[in-house]
Amino acid sequence: MAQKSSKVTCPSCGADNLPGTLFCVQCGTYLPSGGPLRTEPLPEQEDGRLARPRYGDGDQAERTRTINIEVSVLNTGRTMLLSADREILVGRLDAAHGIFPELDMTTDGGLEQGVSRRHARIYTRDGTCFVEDLDSTNGTFLGDERITPYLPYAFHDGDALTFGSMRLQVRIFEAEEGV
C-alpha cells in the first residue's frame, strides 16, 4: 500500500522539497519537522518580573561575562577577534544564497582549502566554547582529530581548529563587565 506524501515547503524561499529533507535544496535553510515551532517562556520571579541570570552571590553588583575568541589563520597570518555572545557561523560568503558567515574564510583561500559555505558553528554554553561541524564536505578537526558532524566538541584556549585544510589557532579571552 503506497502512501501519498506531501512536499515540504521552505519557509524562507518557498521552494518545494521532498519529505524527510532536513535542509532546503535551494537556499540551505533548516526545514522544521515534528510539528509547529514554539518558544519556551522565560522564567519569572515571584513578583511577576522576568528573571535575569546572575553571577556570584546576590550581594555583588550584577555582572555579565563576555567571551571573546581570537582566531589566527595560520596560512595567511590574518587575525580576527570575535564576540562569542552569540553563535558564530564559519564558512564562505555566498550572497546569492544568503550565506553571510561571521567568520568568513573566503579571502583566506577558503574555497581552495575546502571550506564549505556553511562549514561549522562556534558557540558558548556556561562559559565553555564549542565547535560543531555542519556536515561539511571536507570536515572539521579539533587538534588532529576529525569531529563528528552535528555533535558539539568543547575547545580551549590555545587549541587548533581546522576547517577543510585551513588551520586556525584559537585564543579565548573572558571579560567581566558590570551592568
Blueprint of the fold:
Blueprint: E1 8-9, E2 16-17, E3 63-73, E4 79-83, E5 88-91, E6 103-104, E7 118-125, E8 128-133, E9 140-142, E10 145-146, E11 153-155, E12 160-163, E13 166-178
Parallel strand pairs: 5-6
Antiparallel strand pairs: 1-2, 3-4, 3-13, 5-7, 7-8, 8-11, 9-10, 9-12, 12-13
Distance between the termini: 63 Å
Level of helix content? Answer: under 10%
Strand content: 35-45%
CATH class of the domain at 64-178 equals: Mainly Beta
Structure description:
The chain is mostly beta strands and 179 residues long. The chain has a domain at 64-178: Sandwich (Tumour Suppressor Smad4). The protein is 0% helix and 36% strand. It has strands at 8-9, 16-17, 63-73, 79-83, 88-91, 103-104, 118-125, 128-133, 140-142, 145-146, 153-155, 160-163, 166-178. Strands 4-3-13-12-9-10 form a six-stranded antiparallel β-sheet, with no helix packed on it. The protein has a five-stranded mixed β-sheet with strand order 6-5-7-8-11, with no helix packed on it. A hairpin with a 2-residue loop joins strand 12 (160-163) and strand 13. It is globular. Mean pLDDT is 81; it is low at 54-63.
